[in-house]
Design brief:
Blueprint: H1 6-31, H2 42-77, H3 82-108, E1 110-111, E2 125-126, H4 129-158, H5 165-175, H6 179-191, H7 200-203, H8 205-223, H9 228-235, E3 326-329, H10 332-337, E4 354-357, E5 363-366, E6 375-377, H11 383-397, E7 399-403, H12 409-423, H13 427-431, E8 443-445, E9 451-452, E10 455-456, E11 460-465, H14 495-520, E12 537-543, E13 554-559, E14 566-571, E15 580-583, E16 589-591, E17 599-603, H15 605-610, E18 620-623, E19 629-635
Parallel strand pairs: 6-7
Antiparallel strand pairs: 1-2, 3-5, 4-5, 7-17, 8-11, 9-10, 11-12, 12-19, 13-18, 14-17, 14-19, 15-16, 15-18
Helix pairs in contact: 1-2, 1-8, 2-3, 2-4, 2-8, 3-4, 4-5, 4-6, 6-8, 11-14, 12-14
């Protein structure tokens, strides 16, 4: 497992309350619970009442807290709509609040409180027992309804998906086992009036059993959906798969290194605190791959992790043999739920399309192409949702906006304001820092100096990098010549501190982002950091206004970024000025408009290589226009 989630913590807390409840029930039985009240001594009566009063609230917490855990689990793996999420959390929270109110009512029904069990107290005021019982029945009814809703909701979602009936039933049962708790809760409600009976100790003997039973059932129900590895171990991978042939027998029988010992969600072995091992659940496959489906899959060595030809921690793999944008689904919960785990919003257009089955019984879900670029809020408090959104952008789009990135707004404003002045300096001042004169390929290049896809790019630019000393000498690799000082235009001395500060900020942001990327790919946070160079490059780009732009005027032609792992782009023009477009896998160009306060991030070809194509660089271009445009790409080295 990658880490403990909220449902794990809530289930663990529930177990503690359940243990406390059982302990108090045992003490109540020893004191006299289960025997007729008239046969007990005063001490036995008081002891029975005391321990029963303590046991009931513990049991109530034990069956209410797991409902919150189930809600957390369902919202994590089913990714419901906002309305369903509000319904799930609203209902479970209301149920929990009625339980808390019931506990308060139980302890506060008499003044002083000790009069509940101390039969010697004469001067006391108590709420009628029937009032307490009525409220407990109301709370129990809410609990029963909540259990039923949490049991039926997954089934209604799963039966809308395109999968075989055996799997629908199995997953519905696994996620809906809490319906048993509904029956127990109803039975418990029928026994609650015994609390107000005169023969309290005898009439409540079965009530405490139903309270304990309800808590135990709902705790077990909250854990069953995550037992897929055990099912695989005992029954094998095909236990839930239909035997029918869906026309995908051409797929290979190998799981490309996947083994039954892989843990929850089919991703890893070892201790609970370790990151996932093995191939990622989000392995991306493409249409039209030229690789043979029978080839041996190579694994990319990342950081200091082992490389033995098998999937291991720190490895990301790619499966090249399926249809466009399909994913292998490897766990009990995922088979029914991951189809909705990728955000079902117009923001990223990733709704579920269809399920395909391979010859080995594995299932692959396919998603439609993106029609716009997803937006990722780096300040999102729900870290799991942040990683889920990021994972979609990494494997499905290759482009994303990041917001609340932490780069100071005043620094961005200073850089934007510097651009018009920089490009307005004289041609002579630009020529003195010409890139062609720099052994480090840093400096100015003019409009039309570069070509992409056989056409001249209509842009001029200044290139800078992390300020380093020139250390190259004869005998060293030629790439070392790229390391060296920048060429700063003397006509604009105020530019240097702005650019150097911006490079430092983007360097830090890039490292933070790379840690998130590793997490999103189920890898340790620091996996990619050892590969980073200490030199990153920055361009200040000006796209001039064109008198006759035309439909295909080229600011920069179609290309993938070859410089660095990631590109962090500041679109430094007003929102109404467009130009940047990305190519989706359907062959359509998608606009990437300016969103104030955001940076556009895209995958470079180096990162595509190191992830073996799981995260692909996306083709993009910049169109020329009738309005000048500025942009600032930062290339992570």
């Amino acid at each position: 497992m990658a880490k403990l989630h909220a449902d794990d913590w809530l289930a663990s807390l529930s177990v503690l309350f359940q243990w406390a409840c059982v302990a108090f029930v045992i003490l109540a039985i020893k004191a006299g619970n289960g025997r007729h009240f008239d046969t007990l001594s005063i001490d036995e009566r008081e002891g029975t009442i005391f321990w029963t009063v303590l046991a009931l609230p513990m049991g109530m917490l034990a069956f209410s807290i797991p409902k919150l855990g189930v809600a957390a689990l369902l919202t994590r793996i089913m990714n419901p709509t906002k309305q369903h999420k509000l319904a799930v959390w609203g209902l479970t929270s209301f149920c929990a609040s009625t339980v808390v109110a019931s506990i308060i009512l139980v302890f506060a029904q008499c003044t002083p409180m000790r009069a509940l069990w101390d039969l010697s107290v004469v001067d006391k005021k108590c709420i009628p027992g029937s009032v307490v019982v009525d409220f407990l029945i109301f709370s129990g009814s809410v609990s029963a309804f909540t259990d039923l809703y949490l049991a039926l909701y997954p089934a209604t979602v799963l039966f809308k998906l395109q999968m075989n009936i055996r799997k629908k039933i199995a997953l519905s049962v696994a996620l809906g086992i809490g319906s048993v708790a509904t029956v127990i809760a109803i039975k418990k409600c029928t026994r609650l009036p015994a609390l107000a009976e005169k023969d309290f100790t005898y009439k409540t003997s079965d009530l405490v059993l139903w309270v304990v039973g309800e808590g135990t059932t709902i705790i077990v129900a909250s854990c069953i959906p995550l037992l897929q590895p055990l099912v695989d171990l005992i029954f094998g991978r095909r236990a839930l798969n239909s035997s029918e042939n869906n026309g995908y027998s051409r797929f290979p029988a190998s799981r490309l290194g996947w083994k039954k010992r892989d843990t929850e969600l089919g991703l890893g072995t070892g201790k609970r605190g370790e990151r996932h091992k093995g191939t990622s659940v989000d392995d991306l496959v493409e249409v039209g791959s030229q690789d043979t489906i029978l080839r041996t899959l190579d694994y990319v060595k990342l950081a200091d992790h082992h490389h033995d030809g098998k999937p291991g921690q720190g490895h990301v793999s790619r499966q090249p043999h399926l249809t466009n944008r399909c994913r292998p689904i490897r766990s009990f919960a995922q088979q029914g739920a991951l189809s909705t785990n990728i955000r079902q919003s117009s923001q990223n257009n990733s709704s579920f399309v269809s399920e395909h089955r391979s010859q080995d019984g594995g299932f692959y879900y396919c998603y439609p192409d993106f029609i716009n670029v997803p937006r990722i809020d780096l300040s999102l408090s729900d870290h799991d949702q942040l990683l889920s959104d990021l994972r979609y952008a990494l494997t499905e789009v290759g482009f994303l906006y990041i917001e609340n990135h932490g780069v100071p707004t005043n620094l961005i404003s200073d850089l934007k304001n510097a651009l018009p002045r920089l490009f307005s300096i004289s041609p002579e001042s630009k020529a003195e820092v010409a890139l062609e004169n720099s052994p480090h390929f840093l400096g100015y290049s003019g409009d039309g100096a570069e070509t992409t896809a056989g056409k001249s790019d209509r842009r001029e630019q200044f290139e800078f990098a992390t300020e380093l000393d020139a250390t190259w000498k004869e005998g060293l690799p030629l790439r070392e010549r790229l390391r060296g000082p920048n060429s700063w235009p003397s006509a604009y001395p105020q530019l240097r501190p702005i650019v150097e500060t911006y490079i430092r900020e983007l360097t830090a942001l890039g490292e933070r982002f790379l840690r998130l990327v590793a997490e999103a790919l189920f890898l340790p946070q620091g996996t990619f950091l050892p590969f980073l160079s200490d030199q990153h490059r920055l361009k200040l780009v000006h796209y001039p206004a064109l008198e006759d732009p035309g439909a295909e005027s080229q600011g920069v032609g179609p290309h993938k970024d070859s410089s660095g792992w990631w590109t962090f782009l500041l679109q430094a023009s007003p929102p109404h000025i467009k130009g940047l477009q990305v190519l989706n896998k359907s062959g359509n160009w998608v606009d990437v408009p300016v969103i104030p306060g955001s940076l556009v991030v895209n995958i470079g070809q180096a990162f595509e290589v190191v992830t073996h194509g799981v995260c692909k660089a996306t083709t993009h271009r910049v169109l020329g226009g009738s309005l000048e445009r500025f942009s600032v790409p930062f290339f992570q080295g």
